[in-house]
Design a protein that fits this description.
The chain is of the alpha/beta class. Helix content is 47%, strand content 12%. Strands 1-9-6-4-2-3 form a 6-stranded parallel β-sheet, with helices on one face. Bound molecules: nicotinamide-adenine-dinucleotide and fe (ii) ion (FE2).
């Protein structure tokens, strides 16, 4: 779990004092900030000292193992070692920061660690500061990376942040569509966790709270205001805590295949899949569709039209490789329920 958490509007201003005890001699702190903030006032609030460095994270595409390896190598070449890395941005930037922290101390390529419990050493100090709410990347024990052969996280006890700062003010100007897609990532985490076979009281307690927050902001509120940003940030946290002790399910397993082959982004990919999952999550899908309509969001359709058999196979392989997700969703006998043919039919609907 994350060691330290601060929450509150404006808490970003405490960053300097919070990281001060983590500074090691003259080694720099690295601030990895989402490229959206280039030239924005937030950059001037970053507490730069000594040889500290700001790096803008290019998140046009979701994080790749090659991108992580390159960033870590650059830092090793320039500084030898660093005091720590602070990721400021959406799930992509936070995941990059987590992965780079681990690759500052673990040998080889980040692709070697895609899987469960393969990371052997703690990384350098790492802190996460979300500027979009929903992924739960701020609390999770994974960092999702696309590698040469698969899209899979570095899931390990060393992956969670040492510190997170939850400042809802940082999400204020997120575009409505992006906010919705990332917010639905959280909603879908709740449904997949609460309907999953891995469910336990820990996951349930957090999942129910996150679900209630999502329902309030996406179904009851008339306009989007500060309260919505405050609540969505806590929903993301609680939703992430819920899956930390269980797993995600069908929407994620299928959306990972889309993302691997077509580069479909996580939030929107989950929405595209969720739209067709009545068979698995009837109540959740009904409510999801209400949220889409009420918030006037378009969910793309027809994105797999014209794909070849090989391309469908590639997606099916990535998806069926996510065994824990399927087991959580469908139980130990999941392979009997989700055959390649059935999954192909589902992909064709998207
Ligand atoms: N580690 C985990 O547990 C976990 C869980 C779910 C998803 N993820 C990962 O998170 C990523 C998705 O994250 P995301 O949905 O937060 O989006 P993102 O980080 O990919 O960002 C989406 C877009 O929003 C922009 N953006 C970020 N903050 C903004 C702001 N405040 N205002 C305006 N624009 C802003 C970014 O520049 C980018 O263009 C995927 O890579 C996914 O794999 C990780
Ligand atoms: Fe997710």
């Amino acid at each position: 779990m994350v060691d330290y958490v601060v929450y509150g509007r404006g808490c970003f201003s405490q960053l300097d004092e919070i990281i001060a005890p983590r500074r090691k001699e003259t080694r720099p702190m690295i601030f990895l900030i989402d490229h959206f903030f280039t030239g924005k006032p937030l950059v001037n609030r970053i507490p730069i000292r000594g040889t500290d460095k700001i790096i803008f994270a290019d998140v046009t595409y979701e994080p790749k193992t090659s991108q992580v390896d390159k960033l870590a190598q650059q830092l090793k070449d320039e500084f030898g070692s660093i005091s720590g890395i602070i990721g400021i941005g959406g799930g992509s930037t936070m995941d990059l920061a987590k992965a780079v922290s681990l690759m500052m101390t673990n040998p080889g390529s980040s692709a070697d660690y895609q899987g469960w419990d393969l990371v052997k050493k703690p990384g350098v100090y790492k802190a996460g500061i979300p500027t979009l709410s929903g992924t739960g990347a701020e609390v999770s024990r994974t960092t999702v990376l696309t590698g040469p052969t698969r899209k899979l996280g570095m899931n390990s006890d060393f992956t969670p942040f040492d510190q997170i700062m939850l400042d809802p003010e940082l999400t204020t100007h997120a575009p409505a569509n992006q906010r919705f897609y990332t917010g639905m990532d959280c909603y879908i985490h709740c449904i997949e966790s609460l309907q999953g076979t891995y469910l336990n009281e820990f996951s349930k307690s957090y999942g129910e709270k996150a679900l209630a927050l999502c329902q309030h902001i996406f179904l009851e509120k008339e306009i989007w205001d500060d309260e919505c940003d405050d609540k969505l940030m806590m929903a993301s946290y609680a939703g992430g805590m819920s899956i930390a002790y269980s797993q995600v399910g069908v929407a994620h397993a299928v959306s990972y295949g889309l993302s691997y082959l077509l580069g479909t982004k996580h939030g929107i990919g989950n929405c595209i899949v969720m739209n067709h999952l009545e068979e698995y999550y009837p109540e959740g899908v009904r409510e999801f569709k209400q949220m889409v309509t009420r918030n006037r969001i378009d969910i793309p359709t027809g994105i797999t039209a014209g794909l070849t058999d090989d391309q469908f196979d590639a997606m099916i392989n990535v998806s069926l490789g996510m065994k824990p997700l399927w087991e959580n969703a469908l139980g130990k006998e999941w392979e009997k329920r989700m055959t390649r043919q059935k999954l192909r039919e589902l992909y064709e609907k998207l």
